[in-house]
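@channel anyone free to eyeball this complex?
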Amino acid sequence: MPQFNENDLTAAVVKSFESTPNPRAKFLLQELVKSLHDYVRRTDLTFEEWEYAIEFLTRTGQKCTPIRQEFILLSDVLGVSMLVDAVNHREREGATQTTVLGPFYVGEHKQMPHGSDISPHNVTGEKMFVQSRATDLAGKPLAGVPVDVWHADDDGLYDSQKPSYATHGPTARARFVTDGDGRFFFRTILPCSYPIPTDGPVGEMIVQTRRHPMRPAHVHFLVNAKGYEPLITHVFIDGDKYIDSDVVFGVKDELIAKVEERSDPKMPDGKEASAPWHLMTYEFRLKPGGGMAPKPMAARESEPA
Amino acid sequence: MPQFNENDLTAAVVKSFESTPNPRAKFLLQELVKSLHDYVRRTDLTFEEWEYAIEFLTRTGQKCTPIRQEFILLSDVLGVSMLVDAVNHREREGATQTTVLGPFYVGEHKQMPHGSDISPHNVTGEKMFVQSRATDLAGKPLAGVPVDVWHADDDGLYDSQKPSYATHGPTARARFVTDGDGRFFFRTILPCSYPIPTDGPVGEMIVQTRRHPMRPAHVHFLVNAKGYEPLITHVFIDGDKYIDSDVVFGVKDELIAKVEERSDPKMPDGKEASAPWHLMTYEFRLKPGGGMAPKPMAARESEPA
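replying in thread with the prediction:
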């Protein structure tokens, strides 16, 4: 006959998952029960606090749309996303460091020719030339590798956050394929630091806890070479005011690039520059292995419920 | 300069909440970060598993409506609701045991005269007479106390789960106010065991983990006397097949009532009975104190987001 005290209850819930066919699912659920129960006991959680949590989680789910993922944002600001990244990349062996995917990867980027300006609509930003290269751990160039890049504009917004996305299509978002020497290069604008969306429950939490909502300026890269681990990372711009206090804890020393201010009349590909401009140079080293590139959010959201 | 290893990262996230003005909110958030991070480290959570969790939580939030609360259901089947109940009711001092509110309390029950039949539309159920009383810890009757009662019908559904709710109004749901001797009584049908809703993510989890979705038959009571702790509980019907394996872990020995099968031609209030009928007798003992009765779900859901 059941009559659970605080500890018996936990044992009974753990036991209820005993027949779960998938051993990994069983382990994850049983550990989840232990973690949640330990939290409630340790904090003596009140009914009002529990009710607040139920409402918060409900609102977080209801804020999600095919192009907005408030639960990923919650995971990000609680450092959970970066920790999942960390435990899955314990041994880098000289490979480029990884960081969060973030909620603005929409996937299926359109391939563009090297040298393209991916931010033609962003008239207000300062011009930047990005030159990059993908190699293996020994520095051998990796040719024909698709690289997705995306970043925020001069207003701190990603293209997908703006109403114009539907009509204008992607901006500051493209795919390049490395040449025979592993290289790719493109034009864009210098991104700036920006706040995460603050009009949802996660933003409210950031404001209420007196944290700032800012991410330091960065460009996202997803380098996906056959036979190598997909590399999901950012390159951060050195000197940013928020480089030491990224709201999602995504910065790593090795991912910070010194972006040079240049006034040469020509950019590295020999074409005219409207001075001054900025030069970002960064090389990616990939680790042998496999794994799936992340699904873009739209694909995730349209899966059957 | 940041460059977090697995443990530094947790310390950095905890520190980010350092300026939270409300000390209790700060404590709860910092402990939450520790619990979540400990879980990720302990399980070596993969990206695919993290993504599954994000999707699951999103779908759970999106399944909620003004009359359906899938996150409460999740809390219930993980034993979290009962644990919150347990840590908030450590010392009962002889007072009646508490159990979960459940997701079907709609609140603002309509007061009905003693003896009313609260299930007039439920022609298929077996008739039950409920006689009850509210007292203090010494057994002194508490007069004029509002008591909300609600239970599932013979199909295992609450009135609010059916389309007819909008037109027929409440069924198997009412408020009674105790008389001078602390008593109240009413007619209804014998409830049966029933499954929690299985058409959402929580139900899917129950099915996938080979748990059964059943709750043993019970009647909900919310006894709310001025100067006493609001008593939220169920009375379970002895002999139910699921009494030892309630999917939400809500059963306590003391809350199980022997419901008698009767064939007397008159019910306890002297009115005619259509034999056979059932008699449920239960007394509630309230603990001095205060506290708010729970908000009904509709009130919770209509709060500004």
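from a first look: Chain A is about 25% helix and 20% strand.
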